[in-house]
Specification:
The protein is of the alpha/beta class. The chain has two domains: about 60 residues; about 210 residues, 3-Layer(aba) Sandwich (Rossmann fold). It contains twelve helices and eleven strands. The strands form three sheets. It has a seven-stranded mixed sheet, sandwiched between helices. Strands 1-2 form a two-stranded antiparallel sheet. The chain has a two-stranded parallel sheet with strand order 7-8. Helix 1 crosses helix 2 and helix 1 packs parallel to helix 4. The termini are far apart. The mean pLDDT is about 95.
């Protein structure tokens, strides 16, 4: 089958759901993933043909996209901060705004003189994207990664191997005080970072079906009545487990920026900053332990 004809079928079936540009993006992700074919090559070789098994694979992808399954889950992988990551239904698909959080931490660290190896913990690591990206770029850091989901940790461990990184993975629930006690044994940290669940049930109406129907709710949602549950627990943990002048970093719910910032202020953190992402939304929060 001509690859160009297959592209036309993708547009015919999917443009009404996603729009032409996103469908093109999906199609070229597939040609790169399954055929190792650069995007420009199709433009140069209009008569490029693929085999029957290859065509069948593309039609399976098309079926998944019609059902609004995320392309990253269909392909089983994605890229984050220039690194390859396996993803499946047990972990959230890493977002660009989380890359901004990683970049914020790296810029802060590299602007300082570090005499000793850093100790970093990522709470609610999911796919491991934050912890692994930090470890890859801070080669002298000792990085820990915590998650309550055994299935998520299996994905994160595979991603660490894929990126040739050594991380200490810990299964535990940050909402449980016994988890805090176990982490106390690891002594104190220079940096604590977390992208915890923060989407309220009332915000589900804003979410697209490909997210709502596919990504793990355990990693997404909190109750409307207590939306800062995880932030309170992690801030309390940071009070006891950050070194003096250690830094706490959060990705946050854009609608609860001031409320989340107030948690750090009340916990006597200094230099508390609420930061916007590239879309102008309140998305990151940082503070320094006195």
């Amino acid at each position: 089958m001509l690859l160009k004809d297959l592209q036309d079928i993708f547009h015919k079936e999917l443009d009404a759901i996603y729009g032409k540009n996103e469908v093109d993006s999906f199609f070229f992700l597939c040609t790169g993933h399954y055929l190792d074919l650069p995007r420009f090559q199709l433009a140069l070789q209009a008569e490029f043909t693929i085999t029957k098994p290859e065509t069948d694979t593309f039609f399976k992808v098309l079926e998944g996209l019609i059902q609004q399954k995320p392309i990253q889950y269909i392909l089983g992988e994605t890229e984050f901060y220039g690194l390859p990551f396996k993803v499946n239904e047990n972990v959230l698909i890493p977002r660009p705004e989380t890359e901004e959080l990683v970049d914020l931490i790296l810029r802060s660290v590299t602007s300082r003189v570090i005499e000793k190896p850093l100790r970093i913990i990522d709470i609610g690591t999911g796919s491991g994207c934050i912890a692994i990206s930090l470890a890859k770029n801070l080669t002298n850091a000792k990085v820990y990664a915590l998650d309550v989901s055994k299935q998520a940790l299996e994905v994160a461990k595979e991603n660490a191997k894929r990126n040739d990184i050594v991380i200490e993975f810990i299964e535990g629930d940050i909402l449980n005080e016994s988890c805090h006690s176990a982490l106390d044994a690891e002594s104190s940290f220079d940096i604590i970072v977390s992208n915890p669940p923060y989407v309220r049930a009332l915000e589900k109406l804003e979410m697209k079906p490909n997210v709502l129907d596919n990504e793990p709710h355990l990693a997404l949602f909190v109750e409307d009545e207590n939306p800062l549950l995880f932030y309170k627990a992690i801030t309390n943990f940071a009070v006891n487990n950050l070194k003096d002048k250690g830094e706490l970093y959060f990705e946050i719910n854009q609608y609860l920026g001031n409320e989340t910032k107030q948690l750090l202020i009340e916990a006597n953190f200094e230099n508390v900053e609420l930061l916007k992402d590239l879309n102008g939304n309140d998305r990151m929060l940082k503070g320094t332990k006195r």
